[in-house]
Amino acid sequence: MSSHREAPEIAKDPVADNTDTYAFVSPDRPGTVTLITNYIPLEGPAGGPNFYEFGDDVLYEIHVDNDGDAEPDITYRFRFTTAVRNPNTFLYNTGPITALDSRNWNRRQLYSVSKVAHGRETVLAEGLTCPPCNIGPRSTPNYARLATAAVQRLPSGETVFAGQRDEGFYVDLGSIFDLGDLRPFQNLHLIPTPAAPGVDATKGLNVHTIAIQVPGTALTRDGSNPTSVTDPRSVIGVWGAASRRKVRIRQDEDDVRSGPWVQVSRLGNPLFNEVVVPMGKKDLWNSLQPKDDARFAEFVRHPELAKLLPVLYPGVFPHLAALTAARADLVAILLTGLPAGVVNGFQNFTGQTPADMLRLNMAVPPAPKPNIFGILGGDLAGFPNGRRVQDDVVAIELRAIAGLTFPLIDHTFTPDAAASAVTDGLTPASNPVAFLPTFPYLGVPNDGFTHPAS
Amino acid sequence: MAAGGALVAAPRVLPAAAVATGSVPTGSGPLVLHVRDAATGEVSLMVGTTETVYRDRDLVGRLLTAAMGRERR
């Protein structure tokens, strides 16, 4: 998946598992940028009585690099506190929850937001309320309204939301991890079966979202308004992270937590740690910073998946099979950004420091009709220019790795015909829950009474 | 520029003399001591969100003696 359970250690710590990161110019407020990090993969909506929640002992962060050195210049920090109204009941709620201050809601989460810049941390807000999980029609009868009430406009200019959302990342996990037997191309696989449509493995599941909408001028290195696509100041690098204290001592009462915060999860580009970094280095990758990613560049230059595709699909990828050169196209997409002159009218280059960050050129306006294939589909406002919630990052990265983007740096290379067609057979329409046209854009979470359906 | 807030667990490393003069940061909350290497006497001292690494063979020796004493009880 994008980064759900993508490394051995973090797979055992879902509360801290950063599953997806998004960064895009807000389509309904184009003077702002929306940054989203998701955590807790594959939430079953009916998972009570202890429904999903953020970790009180986890430090959640969204980092922004605005000068190209792959180190954070701006960091938004989110800290959570759980409050239990009545510890003498086993119930999450003792009646319908119709407002964020409902006395029927027994276990709520509050959070603070702070901003770190120029080495100083400033608290932007405290005591903000997360919405409850979506329990069902009796417990959370008007969930959309309840969640909308949890969208908070801060005096400092940001808008924030933290709480449960529908899992917007669509992917056919079952086919990908069954030896790359991509539906609907199973008939071409080394071990063939009849072709069938893709299956959205995350449909009906939820995730926990931290979203913040920030004026673009608050993200540039000098406070300038990002209006010129060619101006390096218009480009930012974004990644999410989660950290835990170095030591935890279990005892009868409150556990002791001490020592520095230690990063246990991070995420810039979707699927980077998942399918590029080998198993033995995934935990290490999660502990490092983007500025350290030179040590992983070799796995981008010669990705394992590019070698597997011609083997798994005999005769389908002959040009890819013959391609032995280092994949400078993938290095540009994933580690440095695309320099000017590669794609007409576009650049999101952040310099030669190889670093896994989502790179967003904030001067590219939102597309009136977004193409889910992003830049590969001629839509400069989509991945890998940042990442929007609806972008088909699985197909985009599959196609890039299959060789579709290699002509960007070698005009003599002809991609295989399959490189522009490969997909896992899904679109946003595979999920009946629609994205929202406004912040926080990810859809209303599935409720536990009707999901899973009988 | 690294003016933001990436949190890297980079402990302060002090010589034993510096510790003896009281330059280890103190603060509220528990103090956790981790003997990283008994052979060299290297210990890690955690207070709040700080971590200080230094060597104190005498301290580690006393801790080991105490630990062995507990085992015998």
Task: Describe, in short, the structure shown.
The complex is a heterodimer of chains A (454) and B (73). Chain A has 454 residues and is α+β, with helices and mostly antiparallel strands.
Mind summarizing the main beta sheet of chain A?
7 strands, antiparallel
Dominant shape of chain A: globular
Overall body shape of chain B:
flat
- Rg over CA atoms of chain A: 22 Å
Q: What percentage of residues of chain A falls in helices of 4 or more residues?
A: 10-25%
* SSE pattern of chain A, N- to C-terminal: EEEEEEHEEHEEEHHHHHHEH
Whole-angstrom Rg of chain B: 15 Å
Q: Helix amount of chain B, in percent?
A: 25-40%
Main-sheet strand order of chain B equals 1-4-3-2
**What class, by secondary structure content of chain B?**
alpha+beta
- Determine the number of helices of chain B (DSSP H or I, runs of at least 4 residues): 2
Low-confidence sequence ranges of chain B: 17-24
Largest sheet of chain B: 4 strands, mixed
Unreliable stretches of chain A, pLDDT < 50, 5 or more residues?
none
**What gap, in angstroms, lies between the N and C termini of chain A?**
26 Å
- Number-wise, the strands of chain A total 12
* Secondary-structure content class of chain A: alpha+beta
Number of strands of chain B: 4
> What quaternary form is this?
heterodimer
Give the H and E element order of chain B.
EHEEEH
